[in-house]
Amino acid sequence: MSEVIDTQKGKYLTFEIDGDAYGLEIQHVDDIIGIQEITEVPRQPEYVQGVINLRGKIVPTMDVRIRFGKDYRDYDDRTCIVVLDMKGTSVGIVVDRVLEVTQISEDTISEPPGFENESDKKFIAGIGKYENEPVILLDCNRLLSQSESDAFSTTE
Amino acid sequence: MKKLLVVDDAEFMRRSLKLIFESESFEVIEAEDGYAAVKLFKQHAPDVVTMDINMPGKTGIEAIKEIKAIDPSAKIIVVTAMGTEEMIRESIQQGASNFIIKPFEEDQIKEVVKKLV
Amino acid sequence: MTDTPKLEPMLEMYVYETIQLIDRLEQLIMDSEVSGDLSEGMEEIFRIMHTIKGNSMMMMFEGIAELGHVTEDLFDYLRKTESVQPDYEKITDLVLDGIDHIKTSVHQLQEGDDPLEKPEGLIDEIKEYLDSLTFMNLDDATIAEDEKDESDQDKQKYYIAPVKGDEKTTSKPPETLRAYEVVFRFSEGCEMENIRAFSVVHGFKDNSVDMLHIPKEIVEDENAIDEIKQNGFKMLFRTGDSDESVRAYFDTVAFSEGMSINLMSNEDYDRALRTYLGLDDVSEDAVEALEQSEIIEPEIIEPETIEAESMKPDAFVDENVQVESDAVSTPMEDLPSQVADTIENEIGKDKQGENLDENQKIDVEKQGIQKSTDKKTKKSKPEVKSSAQNYISVGIPKVDKLMDLVGELVVSESMVTRNPDLVDVQLENFDKAVRQHRIIINELQDIVMSIRMMPLAMTFQKMNRLVRDMKKKVGKDIDFELRGQETEVDKNVIEQIGDPLMHIIRNSIDHGIESNDLREERGKKERAKIVLEAKHSGGDVWITVKDNGQGIDPEKILSKAETRGLLLKPKEEYSDREVYNFLFHSGFSTKEKVTEFSGRGVGLDVVARNVEALGGTIIIDSEVGRGSEFAIRIPLTLAIIDGMMMSVNKSIFVLPITAIKESFSAKEHDVIVDPEGNEMCMIRGVCYPILRLHNRFEINTECRDINDGILIMTEYDGNVSLLFADAILGEQQVVVKNLSSFLEKVDGISGCALLGDGRISLILDPAGLVNM
Question: Which sign, positive or negative, has the C-alpha torsion C529, C533, C538, C540?
């Protein structure tokens, strides 16, 4: 369960995928667990790996690398599942490793630059700075939207 | 703690009175008909009883009679809707101490009950 | 009342109880219309209206209260007057209109709004009807009245206020008696001051030797009320009680004001007594003689008084009834002003807007809803209450929690009995204990499951009402038959199925059933009929609406689909069923005109969606000229099912046992492949299609040779498929959980289940697997 924090605004959970640092607003993070067995569910989009049993609750998991169009990578002992909750829907995302919960002030956040890969751009809310390193801040909403078409909708 | 026995076949009425009197530190017992009224009266010996006299089966008046037979000093307040003067009169004849007419205000019922305990 | 928080629960209770009462009332009134006999339900109807009236008055809902009042009066009259021949249809219409008004008001209350405005028109109509009834019976009534008047003219005597000498007081010598003069008023707005005075008098009569009061006539005389209001009430009496107890008694008089209690000298008292009796010249002895006689209540003295009644106590019991029916003509105009008097506080005027849904109550133990076609003696509701059956209301979240826990209990039981530690260990006593444990858990499970299950009866009754109203409006003669009302479904289904059913029935009445003339023209001799039926079958509930109307014309639909470019293949290749499915497309309609009831037929797509949301499906069947049938299938969402586990590579599937006929290895039977590559198997002379699960679900498995795996003969709705899986793992009871809404729906998978070891298995939906 997420820690009780006075104000969750401006606090992000940072994690690493493919060497890059990413961040998600902490208010949407419900849980962080170590990688566990994922049960396949047939006929789902490629980035949906299946479901896990989280203390009796069935939570679908998504591999963000594949969502971002990257290659699949084997899981190791540092791979984690970050369980997000948006408006009652729980989804877990598999990440290479979790970094930490940190404050990223608004003034350090800048607009995302143009990316070659359209899909990346849609999920990104902005680029923040933490300890002088860029952190790609993700848009939880877009991430959790169900269909491919949603992800690529051009309403900005 | 004072005990109040509420007799009424409408659940709504029983609950309303219960709410009112529990907040006045009464222990409230509910009865939904005349039979239960007499039975619960014997069981709990309440300090005062409110009795709806428009109930089917054993009517309120019969219940009043029986309760008074068990305990002549029983304090019974008759609860009734308008237009039943004869019934009120008879219930008083049977030993009811007072009556109150629906719709009543919370203050009114409280006054009537409290005066009798 | 000024405590707002306290009213939320009261409003909620009021709404809850009123809804119960109204539903019951509707059932009663419609039954009586059908049976043509009001007598059975009359008493209960009267009682229900009385309760609604009382409750509504408490909540200050004038409109409903008065509606209840006039209806109560009507039924009071009906139940007491034998000679009356009521017009059933009219009464039913009036009551139903009243029910509608109350329903709508209650609905508004639920939304946090005020109830509807007082339905003046309807109230007047009911009053008028009652007047017309009484008028017809007037002759009998007037005779009775005249008789009464005569008998009472004789009894114009004075009596002193009741003194039934209590032994204590009468045996006391007069000197130890004290005389008192007590004067007081009643507070504003306390009503019925005369009776209140009477109760004060009556309450003390046993404690006093004699007593007189002014005004003299308090019970019979309504003028007394005004007198007391103006001049107060005065009591003079003699008593042997202590001063303390006298004062204590008068202290209990509620609503009294300006209470003054004064001792009188005995002489003053005697004088007053004489004047009172008009016996100034009479000796004391005479007075005493009077005192000792059996004295009863004063009777009327004023000739103007209309009501005349004997005052003997035992006369009360019967007279009551008579008097009440006279009271029917009690001025109703008084009612609003009385209610108005007590409206000083803003009870119920706050917008509560509480969320009833969350705290909705369901009654544990079925409410004993009487079958409408059942003509057994219907006990009025209160009688049922005083019998052994008791009901309690339980909040739904609690019930859900209970169900979840029972589900977990089943799983944990599995975890104990199928524990890897126990494999291969022979434990006889343990096994026995486990079996017993199992039995108990199963029973627990059944009962808990049944808590949320409710009969469809109420929903069906609503349809009854709908048909009745609609057929009148469109002017068609239609018989409506209900079957299987007692069929139970989950509460959730009851709530959601109403709208789709209404829509389908509306369609049927509006478009399906021909007008009376048209039917005659077409030579359809039998009456138009709609049958609404519910039944359990194979783990599902089937709810069907069948009519013998004109059916659905596939040609028309196809042409329409064509013009809209919806056809994917040549017309001829469409099966009838596929054609009917076009009706579920949004915006599809073959109707030229829109009617008030069914719109453009656009509703069917919404119907389909609603049904799907319940996990169900809807099928249409029809024959032109003969009729149509809409069948809704709803899976019983039993949270726990008996399933057969099977594996395909690492995936585990669970198939409900109810769908399995048998299983075997393909080796034992002939496998045939047709020119298109479809595999089939011949079993006892019949060919069944093979469905390879690994193909359907795109799972990589090493077991591809038909002879290596296992075939499971699965049946659904008359269709059979042979499912091909790697292996069968055994039977298990599993808790059904929905797959997240985040995932895409997969045809053939209805959910998932947690196995005893924590793994997740997917639950197969036979319907999606046999209909390909």
Answer: positive
Of C650, C740, C744, the CB nearest to A89: C740
Helix and strand totals (H; E) in chain C: 25, 24
The one-character DSSP state at A75 is: -
Residue-range domains of chain B with CATH: 2-116 (3.40.50.2300)
Q: Which chains touch C (3 or more CB pairs under 8 A)?
A: A, B
Q: Report, as ranges of residue numbers, the positions in chain C whose pLDDT lies below 70.
A: 1-9, 83-84, 136-175, 278-391, 420, 538-539, 568, 585-602, 609, 612-615, 636-640, 756-757, 771-772
Residues in chain B closer than 8 A to C1 (CB atoms):
105-106
Contact between C603 and C501 (Cβ < 8 Å): no
Distance CA B13, CA B76 (A): 17
**CA–CA gap between residue A126 and residue A115 (Å, rounded):** 12
Q: What are phi and psi of C520, to 5 degrees?
A: -65, -45
pLDDT tens digits for chain A (156 residues)? 444 445 667 788 888 888 888 999 888 888 888 888 899 999 898 889 899 987 667 899 998 888 877 787 888 888 889 989 877 678 999 988 888 888 887 777 887 776 555 555 677 888 888 888 888 888 888 777 754 433 332 333
CB contact under 8 A, C742 and A60: yes
Contact B10 C330 (CB under 8 A): no
Task: Tell me how far CA of residue C759 lies from CA of A31, A43, C406, C411, C532, in angstroms.
Answer: 20, 20, 19, 12, 43
The span from the CA of C276 to the CA of C279, in Å, is: 8
Q: C324-355 pLDDT, tens per residue?
A: 333 333 333 333 433 333 333 333 333 333 33
Q: Are the Cβ atoms of A51 and C696 closer than 8 angstroms?
A: no
Report the CATH architecture of A11-145: Beta Barrel (2.40)
8 Å CB contact of C752 and A59: no
CA distance C394 to C61: 27
Q: How high is the pLDDT of residue C336?
A: 41
**Are C255 and B111 a contacting pair at CB < 8 A?**
yes
- Residue with the two structure tokens 């001829």: C572
Tallying the residues shown for chain B, one arrives at 117
Å between B74 CA and nearest CA of chain C? 12
Among the residues of C564-615, which ranges form H helices? 576-581, 603-613
* DSSP H/E element including C523: none
Using alpha carbons only, give the angle C615, C616, C620 rounded to the nearest 5 degrees: 160
Cβ contacts of C324 on chain B, cutoff 8 Å = 83-84, 86
Give the minimum alpha-carbon distance from C540 to chain B in angstroms, rounded to a whole number.
37
Q: Please, what are the domains in chain C?
A: 4-140+326-356 (1.20.120.160), 167-309 (3.30.70.1110), 393-451 (1.10.287), 454-635 (3.30.565.10), 640-770 (2.40.50.180)
The secondary structure element, H or E, covering residue C176 is none
Contact C410, C445 (CB under 8 A): yes
Question: Who's near C688: CB < 8 A, 6+ residues apart?
Answer: C680, C681, C713, C720, C721, C722
How many angstroms separate the CA of residue B6 from the nearest CA in chain C? 15
Q: What is the pLDDT of residue A32?
A: 84
State ipTM: 0.83
- CA distance linking residue B42 with residue B44, whole number of Å: 6
Burial class from Cβ neighbours inside 10 Å (0-12, 13-18, 19+) for residue C629 reads: middle
- For chain B, say whether C306 makes contact (Cβ under 8 Å): no
Q: Which residues pair with C210 in a beta bridge?
A: C238
Among the partner residues C202, C254, C313, nearest to B112 by beta-carbon distance: C254
- C chain contacts of residue B12, beta-carbon cutoff 8 Å: 10, 13-14, 17, 55, 58
